Amino acid sequence: MGSDDNPEPNPAQPKERGALRDFDLAKSFDLEEPDQLTSPLVFSSPHSGSFYPTAFLQMARLDHLSLRRSEDAHVHDLFSSASAHGAPLLRARFPRAYLDLNREPYELDQRMFEERLPEFVNTRSLRVAAGLGTIPRVVADARAIYQGKLSVEEAFRRIDLLYKPYHQALQNLMLRAQRRFGRAVLVDCHSMPTHAGREGATVARGDIRNVHFVIGDRFGQSCSLQIVEAIEETLRSFGYNVQRNRPYAGGYITECYGKPAAGWHAVQIEVARGLYMDETTLAKKPEFESVAEHLGEVVRIVERVAGERDEREAAE
Fold first, then answer.
1. Do 253 and 46 touch, CB atoms closer than 8 A?
2. Which helix (H) or strand (E) is 304 found in, with range?
3. CA–CA dist 148, 65 (Å, integer)
4. Strand-pair partners of 266
5. Cα 161 to Cα 113: distance, rounded to the nearest angstrom
6. Coil, helix or strand for 127?
7. Which helix (H) or strand (E) holds 56?
8. 44 neighbors 115 (Cβ within 8 angstroms)
9. 265: part of which helix (H) or strand (E)?
């Protein structure tokens, strides 16, 4: 590949300090690239990171496993076929309990901090009110994460050293895909509890028992209908119960990167955790491989569909 096919390098990152002192900042995310870039697809797994900085664990009132239950555990492995189909897969190494990439950069809860937050910070969103801002206050079952309050400096350090580089890398991948193929299609990969509504749902929570996948396209605003229908139909062909936008229509990433009129499409896929893992121990089930194979077929079909410009797009 030529140099134009590679994402632009991130700026040099400062040395570790404070709560990040034991975190290898050069590897705050992993990027799995294909041998040859042949697809406009970009895969992102922002919530499957499982590296917990020691200082963070010392600040937390919860045990390690309780913190881990907020992870989208193993999701990056479910979509690992992306590179075989010519698409990159970006995955955060740090956990969502430490920093949530599917939020605005400064969605923060004043109750968590010793000092007053600057006026530009969004302290009034519904996600912040629920304790699920960029620096979460609680884990999925609404239990408080921290023993005491944090400094504003600590929050901004995480955002500068972890949040911004991830989103810069994701933006670079989307720009590369658009330059190469004329469009970019982001598949944002997540998991959901099997028998309950999950934090951050963007619409009223319903009974999602026995729902295996939820496809989110911001109610038709973030992605071509052709792509969304291809995902839905492929999953249903394997016998899965698939819902669209309820209760998860897509979060900040889907909203931010989904600009179909500009050639950027974004769709969120939520996988029921009980399909592929033990939700208590987080261990993979024997069924993991079959779910991964089915998602590999989804990747293959969407790769084909994403390479086809629908008539409306071509007319524009």
1. yes
2. helix 288-306
3. 20
4. 186
5. 19
6. helix
7. helix 54-59
8. no
9. strand 264-272
- φ and ψ at residue 90, rounded to 5 degrees: -105, 130
Domain ranges across the chain: 24-96+165-315
Q: Hey, is 214 helix, strand or coil?
A: strand
Signed CA dihedral, 68, 288, 100, 11: sign only: positive
- Sole residue written with tokens 């010392």: 58
Across the strands, what pairs with 192? Answer: 272
Contacts of 312 (CB under 8 A, 6+ apart): none
Tokens standing for residue 42: 């970009």
Q: DSSP 3-state assignment of 12? A: coil
Q: Which mean pLDDT values do the consecutive 10-residue runs of the chain (316 residues) have?
A: 41 39 67 97 97 93 94 97 97 96 98 97 96 95 95 96 96 98 97 67 48 98 97 98 96 97 97 97 97 98 82 44
Distance (Å, whole) CA 178 – CA 185: 9
Helices (H) and strands (E) in the chain, counts: 10, 7
Residue 203: its pLDDT value, please? Answer: 34
**Strand 184-192 and strand 41-45: pairing?**
parallel
Q: Is 184 helix (H, G, I), strand (E, B) or coil?
A: strand
**Cα–Cα distance between 250 and 248 in angstroms, integer?**
6
Q: Sign (positive/negative) of CA torsion 85, 304, 170, 76?
A: negative
Q: Where do the H-state alpha helices sit in 98-223?
A: 126-129, 152-158, 164-181
In what order do the strands lie in the sheet containing 213-216? Answer: 29-32, 89-92, 41-45, 184-192, 264-272, 213-216, 242-244
Q: What is the pLDDT of residue 307?
A: 81
pTM here? Answer: 0.87
User: What pLDDT, on the 0 to 100 scale, is given for residue 208?
Assistant: 53
Domain 24-96+165-315 classification at class level: alpha beta
pLDDT at 13: 36
The two tokens of residue 209 are 């028992």
Tell the residue number behind the tokens 């023993």, with chain if given.
Answer: 147
C-alpha span between 278 and 60 (Å, rounded): 24
